[in-house]
Structure to design on (151 residues):
């Protein structure tokens, strides 16, 4: 599971091996030294300071203009190189470099399935384009593939 979402809901829902390309709002890190900062480590100051270098603590998300974390990006590329199918679900396909993932999947010979209510630039490269909201299309797709899937 590769996601651009920062809300941690995939993990809360029980998904395993989630690659959070843009980080997780529930994790904190030091803006100076980059170390993760557990809530218990933080002082009561506002804004909180890093217990290691006294730098400012910030949410563990990628802000506009920042690079994606290299480990997440590398892992996403590795997953695409071995996946059978790449589902591109509910994205505008505008934010790079994440928007390049479907193109990379296609260049690796993977089947790309686009699920979105609106057309995007990925409609051209996807072998299958399913129009609709993910919360409606995915259950219908699973039901069609596995009739025993709970409706």
């Amino acid at each position: 599971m590769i996601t651009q979402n920062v809300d941690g809901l995939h993990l809360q829902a029980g998904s395993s091996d989630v690659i959070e390309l843009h980080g997780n709002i529930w994790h904190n890190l030091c803006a100076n030294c980059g170390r993760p900062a557990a809530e218990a480590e933080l002082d009561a100051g506002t804004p909180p300071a890093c217990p290691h270098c006294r730098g400012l603590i910030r949410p563990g998300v990628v802000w506009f203009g920042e690079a994606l974390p290299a480990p997440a990006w590398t892992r996403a590329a590795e997953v695409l190189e071995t996946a059978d199918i790449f589902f591109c679900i509910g994205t505008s396909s505008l934010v790079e470099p994440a928007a390049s993932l479907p193109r990379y999947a296609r260049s690796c010979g993977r089947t790309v399935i686009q699920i979105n209510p609106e057309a995007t630039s990925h409609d051209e490269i996807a072998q299958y384009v399913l129009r609709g909201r993910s919360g409606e299309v995915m259950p219908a797709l699973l039901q069609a593939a596995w009739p025993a899937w709970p409706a």
Observations:
- The chain has a mean pLDDT of 90.
- The longest helix spans residues 70-82.
- The CA atoms of residues 143 and 151 lie 7 Å apart.
- The domain at 70-145 is CATH 3.40.50.1220 (Rossmann fold).
